[in-house]
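User: Fold this; tokens only.

Assistant: Input:
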Amino acid sequence: MQVVDITDSINESDNIKTIKFKWPAESKPGQFIMVWIPGVDEIPMSLSYSDGITVDSVGEATQAIHALEKGSQIGIKGPYGNGFDLSGNDFLLIGGGTGIAALAMAAENLSQAGKKIRIAIGARTASDLLFVERMKALGEVHIATDDGSSGHHGFITQVAEKLITVKKPDMILACGPEPMMASAVKLAHKIPIQCSLERHMKCGFGICGSCQCGKFTVCKDGPVFSGEQLGQMEDFGKWKRDSSGKSVWF
């Protein structure tokens, strides 16, 4: 565990905040860290920057993170996980909700390497869209909202399907609600795809089994999985376990 100082606190929207911290560790796009909020909880968070996380206020721990200001301290373990394989030249990134946060570092690395990227960003409403301007600086951006307040009126996978029809990418990277990613895997068909999964984690080492997905544990074997691996998970896109271990259907 390393205790770090928060260097910045950025409001991305009414419910989403980016926390940056002074942290010397090197990380790969797609990896995650375990964040300890003293007196509250320890939770896994994807890295949205090499030195930052982007947090949706949905529970006690994330609300506590939102309350932190510049100069506060948090504990960090990691980075953990395998990250994305960025082999190839033409990429389609599909981010649903805050899932785009887990793809942001990958998009920046791909852009810096001179690779072609198209980025599909989906959210419930226009006010929930995340990192749109950040992504526009890197590649071609396409938007979908559930209520039609910005971009395509409907699911982001509908936008992705049209983009694939126009030009098949070498690789698809996806992160977001699990049913959305399951749809993306079906959509990819024979195109290689990698998805970053989020499951309830307690240990971060593959010991407790709370993040089990099929025969894999998300913390140890993931969080990024190939389409072939996802095809071996009978629960992928269907159900997951809550904090008590009970199966919860999506």
